[in-house]
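Team,

Forwarding the record for the chain on the shared tracking sheet. I've put the sequence and predicted structure together so nobody has to dig through attachments.
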Amino acid sequence: MKHTKEHSFFKLTLADVTVGCSFEFPETHRYFGDYVSGPFPGEGLSLSPEDRAAWEKNIASMDAYNEYSAFTLPVSAELMKYGRCVMHAAAFRFRGRAYLIAAPSGVGKSTQVRTLSELYPGEFSVISGDRPVLEATEDEIVVHPSPWNGKEGWRGADKAPLAAIILLKRGETNTVRELSVRNAAARVFASIFQSAETEESIRRTAAFAELLLKRAPVWEFENGGVPDSSRLLYEVVLKEAKQDGV
């Protein structure tokens, strides 16, 4: 996107990486809270015409709030250069480790997190309600909070190493099963925010998805309705934690 004098320029710091951002709307930076600082000299990231067109076609016309939300696309693409990305998932912390509940909007990620917190007070805390930042270190994936926390605005827990990815779907029964890499790959790939601007961005997304599949188990969680589904999920994460000695 061509930059103009009307654009505002800020530094955005996520998972210890700072990138420059160029916002079309003067109010956009306020949605990022304490993750932004500046202004800074230079242009920085902005929404590409392809990303903006896709957002406006599928979600909403552009304004300050939607620019803030859509900025996950160029930011995630840029963070992948540094071994990080933004994932569409609710991230919660349990016994010092992070779990991701990934699903399209409206499937029930927030309902699961809320119900777990109500049923088991004090045992769960939210890292990010909607789009955590994932960091690939030498031997693990670390889940970080982010400025994108869904309509509930849930955040607060510290970063934590990833224990598992939970792919949520609606169903008639409450069941959890571990998926093979082959059956999980496409859905994990689709959960990572990626820019449509370049082939390189798509390739980096695929590489990060492959790394996630190597580092953490992926469970398919069929949700037949809370609170029973949340009780089942608690039993699964508790068993997994005990098996790993935490």
